[in-house]
Amino acid sequence: DSGAIVHTAGIQFPASQVANGGVNVLDDYEEGTFTPAFSSSGATITHDTQYGNYTKIGRIVHVAIQLRTDGVSGGSSSTALEISGLPYTSGSGTVNRGTAFTVGYRGDFAGDGDFPEGGLVGASSTTVAVYDMGGSNDNTAYSTLTLGDLGTGANNNTLYIAGFYHTT
């Protein structure tokens, strides 16, 4: 006996609801990979590490991302920095306000005092806005990172970030 339980109709909440496809049945689970990328309007950003994996349970998508750049050129240093390529489009309106991304590791950024510390996914989006959350090493409150916060050489801007967001 392996101890595994297989229920092909999904999990029902509560059990007294309509079986096999009722509105309170959790029957949407998926795992996979995707290719994330740093992006900023007008910039050319090449990567030597681009890895993303996700688990989708119902409308919640959990993602883990690893990125590192090989080169950064063009664009305006004041343009917002994002991570593009999320596997699902986020929900619209207030449903998506529960998103949260946390940085597990960062290295080799430009070093002007703004470093990635978190991220948010806006409504109807497939991108993560990367934020510096402010604090003791910094003179500002949280702010969006910009293209100018990236180092431009090879093997720069290593970022491990994970979080969740809601889909429609």
What is the secondary structure topology, with strand pairs?
Blueprint: E1 11-12, E2 25-26, E3 29-34, E4 37-39, E5 43-57, E6 60-74, E7 82-84, E8 100-107, E9 118-120, E10 127-132, E11 143-144, E12 156-166
Account of the protein in words:
This protein is an all-beta fold and 168 residues long. It is 0% helix and 45% strand. It has no helices and twelve strands. The chain has strands at residues 11-12, 25-26, 29-34, 37-39, 43-57, 60-74, 82-84, 100-107, 118-120, 127-132, 143-144, 156-166. The strands form two sheets. Strands 3, 4, 5, 6, 7, 8, 9, 10, 11 and 12 form a ten-stranded antiparallel beta sheet that branches. A two-stranded antiparallel sheet has the order 1-2. A hairpin with a 6-residue loop joins strand 9 (118-120) and strand 10. The mean pLDDT is 83.
Provide a short characterization of the protein structure:
The protein is mostly beta strands and 168 residues long.
Keywords:
168 residues, mainly beta
